[in-house]
């Protein structure tokens, strides 16, 4: 199908973007070409620096920050480890109850005191905590954090804020330059291959972040830091770079440039319009999110031709660029 200026091969009924996004044709073609170059010995390691720079810049644009504030990585938990490992012992971390464990586990594994509270109470419970770590959009059910309230509460309490934008970036317009750290994985709403992730670091938070996987690519000039000491990391957020997953960065560069050319307000209107239409037709109140969690028989949903996720015992569906009203009707059919 053709949608938002690109061709997609997503089958009808594919509503599993919160688990894995479907790339537009140019993204898949870029990765396929890179695989062919690899297969035929036409690739050189330095060729991929261009793609890393493009994906870094593309992620920065989506958040409204400078590219020098963005580090590349491979997964959300891996990039968050740079934050969790740098915090003083037994730091008091506040998070949302039931948030994705890639957000919370790095802090718990470092021995910090992590407190979970209901998402709608988060802003009101910031006082007494050092760091707030939360997903912008909850993975399990699509609830959206009240970022203005959280920002105000964190500033009043002097708490740092880490946001996971994995389930938000790509459909929800974001301006997150105010957060100390913002992370996201690329293989869901950003339509990139798995193995691409990013960490945006506010300049005054860089000294509160540790390069736990310091490596040659994190050097000021990566090709000059391949051998030998002393430690010489980049002066900006590239100090936290992981050596890139090449094919993932090729796809991410193309995907983020494509998304960066869209009006995300229109994308949100499209996605949320479908999700809220589904809820309305089921007699449920709108939620204003692209992700919907439903009490439904997963076998009946699958029999209706719907590809979905199962989270916390509920069927989870997500609407993105390639979904249409026909997908809403397929879900409704499972409830007949």
Short description:
With 336 residues, this protein is of the alpha/beta class.
Q: Tell me which CATH architecture of the largest domain applies here.
A: 3-Layer(aba) Sandwich
Number of strands: 12
Largest sheet, in brief, is: 7 strands, mixed
Number of helices: 9
Q: Structural class, from helix and strand content?
A: alpha/beta
Mean pLDDT: 97
- Uncertain stretches of 5 or more adjacent residues: none
What is the spatial order of strands in the main beta sheet? 3-9-8-7-6-4-5
Please report the first level of CATH classification, the CATH class of the largest domain.
Answer: Alpha Beta
CATH topology of the largest domain: the name is Aspartate Aminotransferase, domain 2
CA radius of gyration: 20 Å
Q: Provide the β-strand percentage band.
A: 5-15%
End-to-end distance: 27 Å
CATH superfamily annotation of the largest domain: Type I PLP-dependent aspartate aminotransferase-like (Major domain)
Gross geometry: globular
Summed up, the domain count is 2
Helical amount among residues, as a percent range? 25-40%
Order of helices and strands: EEHHEHEHEEHEEEHHEHEEH
């Amino acid at each position: 199908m053709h949608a938002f200026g690109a061709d997609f091969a997503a089958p009808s009924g594919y509503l599993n973007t919160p688990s894995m996004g479907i790339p537009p044709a140019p993204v898949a073609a870029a990765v396929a070409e890179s695989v062919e170059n690899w297969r035929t010995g036409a690739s050189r390691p330095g060729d991929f620096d261009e793609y890393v720079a493009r994906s870094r810049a593309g992620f920065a644009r989506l958040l409204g920050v400078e590219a020098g504030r963005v580090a590349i990585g491979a997964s959300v938990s891996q990039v968050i480890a740079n934050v969790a490992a740098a915090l003083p012992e037994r730091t008091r971390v506040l998070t949302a109850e039931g948030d994705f464990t890639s957000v919370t586990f790095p802090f718990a594994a470092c021995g910090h005191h992590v407190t979970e509270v209901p998402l709608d109470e988060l802003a009101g419970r910031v006082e007494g905590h050092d760091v707030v770590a939360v997903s912008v959009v909850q993975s399990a059910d699509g609830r959206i954090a009240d970022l203005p309230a959280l920002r105000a509460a964190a500033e009043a309490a002097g708490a740092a804020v880490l946001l996971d934008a994995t389930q938000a970036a790509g459909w929800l317009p974001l301006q997150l330059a105010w957060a100390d750290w913002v992370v996201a994985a690329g293989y869901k709403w950003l339509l990139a291959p798995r193995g691409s992730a990013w960490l945006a670091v506010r300049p005054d938070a860089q000294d509160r972040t540790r390069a736990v996987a310091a490596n040659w690519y994190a050097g000021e000039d990566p090709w000059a830091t391949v051998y030998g000491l002393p430690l010489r990391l980049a002066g900006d957020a590239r100090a936290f770079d992981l050596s890139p997953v090449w094919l993932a960065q090729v796809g991410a560069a193309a995907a983020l440039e494509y998304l960066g050319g869209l009006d995300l307000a229109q994308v949100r209107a499209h996605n949320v319009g479908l999700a809220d239409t589904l809820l309305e037709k089921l007699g449920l109140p709108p939620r204003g999110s692209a992700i919907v969690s439903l009490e439904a028989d997963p076998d009946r949903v699958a029999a209706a031709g719907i590809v979905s996720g199962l989270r916390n015992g509920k069927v989870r569906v997500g609407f993105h660029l390639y979904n249409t009203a026909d997908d809403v009707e397929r879900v409704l059919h499972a409830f007949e």
